[in-house]
TrEMBL record:
PANTHER family linked: DEVELOPMENTALLY REGULATED GTP-BINDING PROTEIN-RELATED (PTHR11702), MITOCHONDRIAL RIBOSOME-ASSOCIATED GTPASE 2 (PTHR11702:SF31)
Keywords: Cytoplasm, GTP-binding, Hydrolase, Magnesium, Metal-binding, Nucleotide-binding
The protein's name: GTPase Obg
Species name: Blautia liquoris
Positions annotated to bind GTP: 165-172, 190-194, 212-215, 282-285, 315-317
NCBIfam families: Obg_CgtA, Obg_CgtA_exten, PRK12296.1, PRK12297.1, PRK12299.1
EC supergroup of this enzyme: hydrolase
Lineage: Bacteria, Bacillati, Bacillota, Clostridia, Lachnospirales
Amino acid sequence: MFADRAKIIIRSGKGGDGHVSFRRELYVPNGGPDGGDGGKGGDVIFEVDKGLNTLVDFRYRRKFSAKDGDPGQKKRSHGKNGEDIILRVPEGTVILEAKSHKVIADMSGDNRQQVVLKGGRGGKGNMHYATATMQVPKYAQPGKPAQEIEVLLELKVIADVGLVGFPNVGKSTLLSRVTNADPKIANYHFTTLYPNLGVVDLKDCRGFVIADIPGLIEGASQGAGLGHEFLRHIERTRIMIHLVDAASFEGRDPVDDIYKINRELENYNPEIAKRPQVIAANKIDAIYRQEGVIDPVERLKAEFEPGGIRVFPISAVSGKGVSDLLYYVQDLLDKLPKEKVIFKQEYFPEDALINSDLPYTVSQDELDKHLFHVEGPRIERMLGYTNLDSEKGFAFFQRFLKDCGILERLEQEGIKEGDTVQMYGHQFDYYK
């Protein structure tokens, strides 16, 4: 099965919690704190595997998680770091944030491996919080939480040249003639349901990669048929070959076909429509010529060559004219910049999730407008670890509230000096 799109959920590992313990040994009556640090959570890493050409492995499993870090132990022992998870994808896979469709990573070019989600940092054990005035700290730092997002994986083929055209115009036949590719060929619409790639080797030339993009139809740019499934694969191509049926076997007008295809490209992505184009007028050995009727190849040349788009009459079956077409395309490629089309990162998970990894609620009491409730799983956990009776512990908790944006959120809700904040059985008076 060929699969070029998949939606999955990825989760990094949570950092292990710091440990609270005190040295207890014979003849050492007042041993100090010796709680160790928690281990770092595992990362989610994407890696290019040249042996893969589809995303089918992600069709039957939805969630992928790295391992959590282990908590710290007594005797200053560090918790074990969580194991990373490595997700192997074919070259050309673009990783997008599922809701915004912004690019997180493009696994092509020099980018063979990328950390997409970092594991949470391990929390510090209580051995770090001993001071001259606080010699028995009874709190430790919780590990940083895991990060979790839904991503969309899209495989966009990596080819120098895209072969486009309406169904049944001979794209697969041409590809099989000029490369070692073995596409399925039959006289049915949409025989090709996924892109076929092949390498064109020309004498005294470096050659190029060509992709047979499945047949387009009108409305493809709006998703008609399998429009979006097909169109994404021409986003990396540097040149487009428009293949048309010059013999009009199915009653199609080849000139009109070119305009329709260009309109779909323009609607999908205007930048793609501006790339160099070549027209291959196929099936010339089947053209029925009549007196007084303009030759279809001459019509194509008269319509498009004044605008700089060359027209090559070819027969994909016999090979006539194909060599001239390929050498012209190679010359065009040699004149174009050598850089591949790489999609730049637009979405940075660590920045986007900096606040969302700490869910909490802030609400004003319905009966007492001077009372505010703050709740959330990590706040409850922090209260369990923190000794609020000590000056050091209370200052530590205040920093936590500030760093998480909770104090700012209280101010947005309208809290005033002297108002009360309630958190899981604890009450504090609010002062700036």
